[in-house]
Write a structure and sequence with these properties.
With about 210 residues, the chain is α/β, with parallel strands linked by helices. It contains six helices and seven strands, in the order βαβαβαβββααβα. It binds flavin mononucleotide. Flavin mononucleotide binds near residues 90 and 139.
Length: about 210
């Protein structure tokens, strides 16, 4: 079966650092036979979560239905049909970009949280989805991994979607010039991550 990989990109710059890093991952996955697609959050109509909690009220594994009729449900249908996901955002003010944060908050529909319950509970912990997380920052990666929270936000988003994180890619020193080439080490790592996402998982032996 062809593996489907979807990338959700929260960068404001088309063909910027994050988008090119994601492209390198997807190209490697496609090389190994995966079907790939990219969703640029900046091009989609996504409303802000209003905290009405309508989507969290019904119990069960299906995501709750949001009151907004916008581009979000199409994206989530595609994510649920995928085998792998690349979640990507540059670091802005130490966290993810605003478009990424708006997308992440709309993932509340993957939690059951009726009024009276103190905390949300995830509807599906493991959807069999593998996630690769990508971020970039002006500061060098070694500092960015310690002092910024974009990767942990992306990881939380992956968890909420029922995805297991298979790897991360952090592109540091990413704001030195208007257009920068990606270092070879980053391209090599992107390629490895793409191959990993495209790798066929062996079916578990059926129990007699
Ligand atoms: C509004 C804004 C805030 C930023 N905040 C940070 C930051 O807190 N730390 C950092 O290292 N880089 C910061 N940056 C630099 C971006 O992370 C960098 O330009 C980006 O990773 C490049 O990716 P892109 O080409 O996909 O946009 C910021 C950039 C902008 C525009």
């Amino acid at each position: 079966m062809t593996r489907k990989i979807i990338a959700i990109v929260g960068s404001y710059r088309k063909e910027g650092i994050v988008e090119r890093a994601v492209e390198a991952i997807l190209e490697a996955a496609a090389e190994r036979g995966a079907e790939t697609e990219t969703v640029r959050l900046i091009d989609r109509s996504i409303e802000f979560c209003t905290n009405c909690r309508t989507c969290t009220r019904e119990e069960g594994p299906q995501r709750g239905i949001c009151v907004h009729r916008d581009g979000m449900s199409d994206i989530l249908d595609r994510v649920e049909a995928a085998d792998g996901i690349v979640l990507a955002s540059p670091v802005n003010f130490f966290g993810v970009t605003a478009v990424t944060q708006r997308f992440i908050e709309r993932l509340l529909c993957y939690a059951y949280w009726p009024w009276g319950k103190p905390m949300p509970a995830l509807r599906v912990k493991d959807r069999g989805l593998e996630a690769v997380l990508v971020t970039s920052s002006a500061m060098p990666a070694a500092l960015g991994r310690v002092f910024t929270r974009s990767l942990s936000s992306l990881k939380r988003a992956a968890q909420t979607l029922g995805a297991k994180t298979a790897g991360t890619l952090f592109v540091g020193s990413a704001a030195l010039r208007e257009r920068q080439e990606l270092p070879q080490a980053i391209l090599d790592r992107a390629r490895k991550l793409g191959h990993e996402l495209a790798r066929q998982r062996t079916e578990p032996e059926p129990l007699n």
